[in-house]
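hi support,

uploading two proteins for the ticket. first:
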Amino acid sequence: MTDDLRIGIDLGGTGTRVALVAPDGTVVDRVSYATATGRAFAVRGLIDAVRGVIGTRRAVSIGIGASGPVDRAGIIRNPATLPAFTGVDLRAVLRAEFDVPVAIDNDAVAAAVYESIVGAGTGEESLLMVTLGTGVGVAALSGGRPIRGADGEHPEAGHRLVDASTAPCYCGRSSCWEQAVSRTALQSAAQAMQPGASDPSTALADLAARARGGEGRALSVFEEFGRLLGAGLADLQTVFRVDAIVVGGSASQFADLIGEPARREFRRLESYRSQPEIAYSDAGELGGAVGAALLDPR
């Protein structure tokens, strides 16, 4: 029913996606654009995008999945990848503009909600979601509700020490899981192997094509990426002990290259006898926006 349409916003460090979503998760309309970095235009641009997607229709709520941290008050605290929105009370702004309830949460929570309702985790009592994009997002659900830290904040579990040499992370760690298994990390590795490549996306696509063609050096990049992914998933499973694990985000498109080394390392490490299969999301680029639309705005 058109009376039940909801707006979902996936506010990522690189791209922003806004979708008008039906209760069953069907996307009615959508728009995508590069995430603003200048505060003067960021909020106004988001409002205009939402208004354009709604058009002459009516939305009953708005949900935002933002690259975290997002604090208990719903304020984004992420100067590293969302500087234009850090410190802005988006809930209050959008409530005042559209007169509907607004929910905001970490973008990994929105992705987890999508997978639990209409995606790879449908029917599971508990779910671990890991998104590999500009950074690494982690969220766990139990009974459909996000698992929080003892203080009520969302755990930023993508920031953990890793057994690898990585670029220094803005979190302060010299070797961080986010710097090892994000799409950004893959793009950096691809550019390092192709010094003349100026566009990171093109360099990564070329590296993947070479790996799929059997080139050893290219395959080794994805093999190591998958190994580190699997090791991190084993650590998280030791803590959360969920029924299902789903990997999403833009780097999940390389599941055919990273899936087996990730599975092998995950199985090798002791997760204390709790080892579900690792699924890869087929949500596409709008999964986060759809999940955001399905967040409870109360």
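and the second one:
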Amino acid sequence: MQNIKDFDLHLLDLFVTIVELGGFSAAQSKLNMHQSTISTKMTTLEVRLGMTLCHRGRRGFYLTNDGENVYKLCLKIFNEIASFEEALNNIRNISNGHIILTLTDNIATNPNCKIKDAIKSFSNLYPKITMKTDVFDSFQIEMMLLDERIELGVTSSEIRKKGLTYLSLFDETQSLYCAAMHPVLDVKGKLSAKKMAAFNLIDRGVSHKITPLTNLNKGENVATSVNMEATVHLILSGNFIGYLPDHFADIWVSKGEMIKINAPDLDYTAAFHLTLLTSKELSLAARKLKDLIIKAHTI
């Protein structure tokens, strides 16, 4: 009996085809062989295996007990080969693929944000994968995920959308800020929402509640912005008060251009999540990056 490593996989594949089609005659077209050639190859296989696999003749085609067992083993072998080929394709894809990561704006200055560490690890492990990063607001990222244009996004959403999975990453504190010399600084003591209503506030411009002062100021000079960079410009104009992440506002506070308002009761916490489509399996590259992002934020 020959070792299995010497078996001819082509002959085993031919055997499986014959069994599944129900005989030599039926297999001729699929195998593109004459019946005599098929018979010769089957005889070769049986000799190499040292057993009779099937009977063919007037009684028709049927498997012996050995043939039944060999057929089952063949199915197992070819399933393993298919799994091996799929694994090779996955390795090839993650070695030479491309991935898009979308982020909300102005999180790089947050000390709790470890996206940079995850990207560093990913790039070191998979140097041939090209990466594109983009910045959008959370709503845009969620829509891109639902449209299957991207696989991974970092969002900060107050209302979670059906069909998306949100994995917790980090938080940030947002406080009220104004430009130096703004009249709100003349108000003594802690400021309440009622007192803040006397000033022009920057609203997020969405229907649902985000900040403790959402939709508080209905005056003609109310400004709206969902973007932190744009909010900075409005605040530095000296005409508006608005919320900024403390880590981001520190850039201008340290230069004396911006002041954090004494209103701790009006601060709020924004949560950030790694967001992905629930119903679709991630590509191998995206799955590896997702795992590294989660790991970076749990250390």
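thanks. also noticed: The mean pLDDT is 88.
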